[in-house]
Amino acid sequence: MTPDFAVRGWCPGALRPMASGDGLVVRLRLPAGRLSPETAHAIADLSRRYGNGLIDLSARANLQLRGVRPEAHPPLIAALQALALLDPTPEAEARRNILVTPYIYSDDISARIAADLAARLRAPDAPDLPGKFGFAVDCGGGRPVLGAAPADIRIEATPAGPICRAEGLSMGRPVSAETAAGAALDLARWFIAAGGVQGHRGRMAALIARGVLPPEEWRSAPAAPSRPVPPPGPCAEGFLIAPEFGRLSADALDALAALGSLRLTPWRMVLIAGVRAIPDLGRALNERLIRDPADPRLRVSVCPGAPECPQARAATRDLARALAPMVPAGRGLHVSGCAKGCAHPAPEALTLTATAPDRFDLIAGGRAADPPLRRGLSPAALLADPRLLTHF
Ligand code: SF4
After folding, report:
1. Ligand 1 centre and the CA of 368: distance in Å?
2. In the CATH hierarchy, which fold is given to the domain comprising 297-390?
3. In degrees rounded to 5, what are phi and psi of residue 84?
4. Taking CB atoms and a 6 Å cutoff, what residues make up the pocket around ligand 1?
5. Nearest 5°: phi and psi at 36?
6. Spatial distance between the Cα atoms of 350 and 319, rounded to a whole number of angstroms
7. pLDDT in tens, 246-267
8. What is the DSSP code (8-state) at residue 142?
9. What's the CATH architecture for 18-86+229-293?
């Protein structure tokens, strides 16, 4: 069946932005997800100057400047170049899809491996990988933390030392700081040779699920279970703060950068390094920067919806905000502007999928495109009787 939404098969970058309903989306792939206060302030300034002052955190720990006017793209690129945040070509940028653990332990080799991998992926002879294909480098503390985040090849910690493994397998191959990046590219080349790419699309887990396995040496060392996604609040290395629905204003980014160095996470949270508590940031920022792990908005995922996404059938964020307190503890709600389900591709306890302005279908225990239990619910009806969400 043909989906009634466009499947693009690639992610935006800075050099190759994506058109959206509110202008261009310019994605910044920050080296190892780290942001010095100076760079963070500079990005906030660029967002105001060339975009609409809104910045999204992506599920791959990138920043997305929204609302960039097409005529503002060239000066924005020049400014990003001056900040040393660009790759040499759009192709190199697309390949440098590397997620790095936000934690740094004394024995951590992640940043070193990530830099080595980035250099190899920028090289002209790097494997020509599909647009969504990505790497996770997650070597600290004897156990990975990025297990819930998307990746096709993982270089990750185990109690016996780091391994490189294909997504979809519970075994990998032992590596060291010196050999890890090269091993990851060997595995990427195997993925291509084994038929993992079709029409410039393809993911490692899908290839493995078809029963196509890498040679024995790639299945010789067991992976360690990933740590659970941490809640917002103080953590060993600083303070995790969760911008509401993964969105920062330029003012919020400035406020966080004033507190310390920032590390981006795939959990739509920002780690402020070395900070134990967040001061009063003023009412507007306090409300949108979640630090309480019990905040009900953390149970809700929501995409930009209308009018920001041209594919959206309805606005989503106000409804998500209003329904959040009504979602029972321990359950999740996904509000999706269309059946594509960008904000939460996995099944969720409750999903509302927009089908028309002010009309949503309710799916229980499924994805945004799955058959609904109820059809045509209006936001007014849902807010008037939240039992519609849970009593079926
Ligand atoms: S799920 Fe949301 S962001 Fe994705 S295409 Fe549909 S409306 Fe747009």
Report:
1. 10
2. Sulfite Reductase Hemoprotein; domain 1 (3.30.413)
3. 60, 40
4. 5, 303-305, 309, 311-312, 336-338, 340-342
5. -70, 160
6. 14
7. 999 999 999 999 999 999 999 9
8. T
9. Alpha-Beta Complex (3.90)
